[in-house]
Design brief:
A 5-stranded antiparallel β-sheet has the order 1-2-7-8-9. It contains 9 helices and 9 strands. It folds into 2 domains: about 90 residues, no CATH class; about 130 residues, no CATH class. Helix 2 packs antiparallel against helix 3. Helices cover about 50% and strands about 20% of the residues. With about 260 residues, it is an alpha/beta fold.
């Protein structure tokens, strides 16, 4: 009789332990589910905020106040911010001539075999694919892009990119920098040619090739908007919307859109 009571008590204890574990798992699942729902709600609000910032950017472009990119408080701890980048300030790895890519590698101190690899694997859909083919600390990552029409905006391009273009060199970089600092960016290749006395013969020898490659204003703008809820800002849970646009006098024409 005593043994039966012992077994019965042990069975009851096992049942209680099993029920306790099941209740714990259920509560844990409820907490995880509740947190997941809260995150989805925050992400939805973040996407709405990012959309709002894109609308703000478009309105500021039309109102000639595009340089104002301060974060926008949308109320109820919901905020957004945006930035605009000129894709033609970098070199498009998909369209650049191999000679220009090799020249750029020399300018930034990257070994030529890296360019061999990039040429063998292009075209790339995005810079993440480029990053997968080069070392994480490669200086090429700071000067290459997969966006833009392939032209180079000399008024925004990094010196290493300018000096990779045949016919251009340190003197061209100096003049471009000087006029940009004066608030009067150079507006044409003819103007630049008139300013580079020392290297003018070399520029004239490559004039046709340079003219087909360069621009002096961004033909496209890449606008990235971030939306979030709470105090952590974009470092916390947030939504990102990226649009590639053609800047027209009165509006930004969207030609590509990405969301994550």
């Amino acid at each position: 009789m005593i043994e039966r009571r012992g077994f019965a008590l042990l069975a009851v204890l096992w049942v209680v332990a099993a029920l306790t574990a099941m209740v714990g798992l259920g509560l844990g699942a409820l907490r995880i589910g509740a947190q997941g729902s809260a995150n989805r709600l925050q992400l939805t609000r973040g996407r709405w905020a990012a959309e709002a910032c894109l609308a703000v950017a478009a309105a500021r472009w039309a109102g000639h106040r595009f340089t104002d990119t301060a974060a926008v408080d949308l109320g109820r701890q919901t905020r957004c911010a945006w930035r605009a980048d000129d894709p033609t300030a970098r070199l498009n790895v998909n369209t650049a001539a191999p000679a220009v890519l090799y020249a750029l590698a020399r300018q930034v101190g990257s070994p030529p075999p890296v360019i061999d690899t990039l040429l063998a694997h292009r075209p790339f859909e995005d810079t993440a694919q480029v990053r997968a083919e080069v070392k994480a600390d490669s200086p090429l990552l700071a000067v290459l892009t997969t966006d833009g029409p392939g032209s180079i905006n000399l008024n925004n391009a990094l010196p290493a990119i300018v000096m990779s273009i045949p016919g251009l060199g340190a003197e061209a970089v100096e003049q471009l920098t000087r006029y940009r600092q004066l608030g009067r960016p150079i507006s044409s290749l003819d103007q630049l040619t008139s300013l580079v006395a020392g290297t003018r013969p070399e520029l004239l020898a490559h004039y046709a090739d340079v003219a087909s490659l360069v621009t002096f204003a961004p033909p496209q703008l890449l606008i990235t908007a971030f939306g979030w809820v709470g105090e952590r800002g974009p470092q916390g849970l947030h939504a990102t919307i990226e649009i590639l646009t053609v800047p027209l006098p009165d509006r930004l024409a969207v030609i590509r859109r990405r969301l994550w």
